TrEMBL record:
Keywords: Hydrolase. It comes from the Bacteria. It holds the Pfam family Hydrolase. Its EC number is 3.1.3.5. It is an enzyme of class 3 (hydrolase). This is YjjG family noncanonical pyrimidine nucleotidase. InterPro entries: HAD-like_sf (IPR036412), HAD-SF_hydro_IA (IPR006439), HAD-SF_hydro_IA_YjjG/PynA (IPR011951), HAD_sf (IPR023214), PGP-like_dom2 (IPR023198), Pyrimidine_5'-ntase_YjjG (IPR052550).
């Protein structure tokens, strides 16, 4: 079995449970901003539509087609207009409230803390994320993840987004380690897996929903639960 010395983790959807935390936040905001009063949609529809719109916008962001401000400004407008509201009916402050509340949520994937505690004594652990710097640190502190990691590399800090191999090369330079000594763990086949491969780094595809996408080329490893990392490391 190959020997690694450093582990690179994606944050959202890999350690920090973005979907659970986002859903809880959106249900709260649905009530707080009295969105039911419009009579157009229920809370479940609001969450599902937001999830769809947000995923599309993040895909555009990762490809460099929109910037951070456009993503944050558009996601609730597109969601609520798509559910039948007029643009001027979108509540002022909704986007800001989401950005303020969601990062303070604490849900992480099963076995996150157990696995990180298991890995920390033997490996250098690091985060590499396209998430916005201003909220990633809040998320990590709120969910007690900060103490496990030495380097936290954000796309905003280095100027490149995953899957651009330059963000991985930037991380390797900061850690002062060779690609062959690192392992990247993430949920996104393009950003995390293809990006790491382009930089010469072995990959673990985290696939908790066990989706059967055709993986070509295949990642070095594939897991559906973080506890399976014990079988690799």
């Amino acid at each position: 079995m190959k020997t690694y010395t450093h582990i690179l983790f994606d944050l959202d959807h890999t350690l920090w449970d973005f979907e659970k935390n986002s859903e809880e936040t959106l249900y709260t905001l649905y009530e707080e901003f009295n969105l039911a009063a419009h009579g157009k949609f229920d809370c479940g529809s609001f969450y599902r539509k937001y999830k769809f719109v947000n995923n599309r916008l993040w895909d555009l962001y990762n490809k460099g087609k929109i910037n951070q401000q456009e993503l944050r400004e558009q996601r609730f407008v597109k969601t609520l207009v798509g559910l039948g509201l007029q643009p001027d009916q979108v509540p002022v402050g909704l986007s800001e409230a989401y950005t303020s509340v969601c990062p303070t949520k604490t849900a992480v994937f099963p076995y996150t803390h157990e696995v990180l505690s298991y890995l920390q004594p033997n490996y250098g652990l690091h985060i590499i994320t396209n998430g916005f710097k201003d909220v990633q640190y809040i998320k990590m502190n709120a969910s007690n993840l900060q103490s496990y990691f030495k380097e936290i590399v954000t796309s905003e800090c280095c100027g490149y987004k995953k899957p651009d191999k330059r963000i991985f090369e930037h991380a390797l330079e900061r850690i002062n380690v060779k690609p062959s000594e690192c392992l990247m763990i993430g949920d996104n086949l393009e950003c995390d897996i293809d990006g790491a491969r382009a930089a010469g780094i072995d990959q673990v595809y985290f696939n908790p929903e066990k989706s059967r996408k055709k993986l070509r080329p295949k990642p070095t490893y594939e897991i559906s639960c973080l506890s399976e990392l014990r079988q690799i490391l």
